[in-house]
Amino acid sequence: MVAISPRKAASVHSPVLTDEVVERLAVERGGRYIDCTLGAGGHARLILEAGAPGAMLLGIDADPHAVALARDNLKSFDGDVHLVNANFRDLEKTARERTFVPVHGVLFDLGISSMQLAEHGRGFSFQSEAALDMRFSPEQELTAADIINGYDESEIANLIWEYGEERFSRRIAKAIVRARPLQTTTALAAVIAKAVPGRGKINPATRTFQALRIAVNDELRTLESALEQARRILGPGGRLVVISFHSLEDRIVKQFLQRESRDCICPPETPLCICEHQATLRIITRRPITPTREEQSTNPRSRSAKLRAAERIGEDD
Ligand SMILES: C[S@@+](CC[C@H](N)C(=O)[O-])C[C@H]1O[C@@H](n2cnc3c(N)ncnc32)[C@H](O)[C@@H]1O
Fold this sequence. Notes:
Bound molecules: S-adenosylmethionine
CATH superfamily of the largest domain: Vaccinia Virus protein VP39
Strand content: 5-15%
Distance between the termini: 38 Å
Largest sheet: 7 strands, mixed
Structural class: alpha/beta
CATH class of the largest domain: Alpha Beta
Helix content: 40-55%
Shape: globular
């Protein structure tokens, strides 16, 4: 059992778009659901409540601390909950091993939780001093320090540009390489602050920290693979719901749903269809759902949330 620090337990994570998640998942009594990003179990609890009696939930999180916390928060549901410390890049395997295929609904609430952001020593936040770690799971090898102190200047610049959409990526990379070795979040944030001209609305380290977290956890490739696995394990009529928090994630989700809801994915100039692709999803959110103003003011973390959902059509392949 992993010990939960008092600080972590104190910084409660408020799940976002809660009614929308339950509604778009079309949670039904006795249904089987997979929460791929369990966190503290906030969404999981709502799914179990909406599907009572008899709903079953498989909760997955790469972070053993999150699984321990959710286990505690969901103990009243006992036999209906299966919690697994795993990466959702192994979603299909994890679901099959627990006979959760075919499944009625799959949820992704991407990114990090408030506990992870606040937890000392994880290195996700530039606001408190910690080692440059940023791994969701202690079993992963690559840390943010490995990237910052080991990659070439051009590799660092490309990564900050691509995953952080940071226009000062080259200046930041140059400053990082000059200041190496860098061991802590606050030291890195100070180097970035000096490298970036002027003062914007957000902290100058925000985009670089996002980029490092995405790279450390290989978040975008993992998401692409997991969406495809989710599509495969959904039963007919099953629902896929994804909440993303930045444009790179949302683009992947949007393009995946568009592709999988089309019968032909040949390039437009192809005169006759040669791809033989068949739609397996029906998009049920024409535009992404975003939090109300009220939710945004009570839960500022929800501000950038975008929810997209689709329903599985046809037979399993
Ligand atoms: C925003 S939080 C989820 C919060 C949760 N919905 C709740 O209500 O408490 C995202 C969680 O996803 C986990 N996570 C992110 N990427 C993951 C991955 N590839 N595999 C498994 N878990 C992942 C993180 O460790 C984090 O706990």
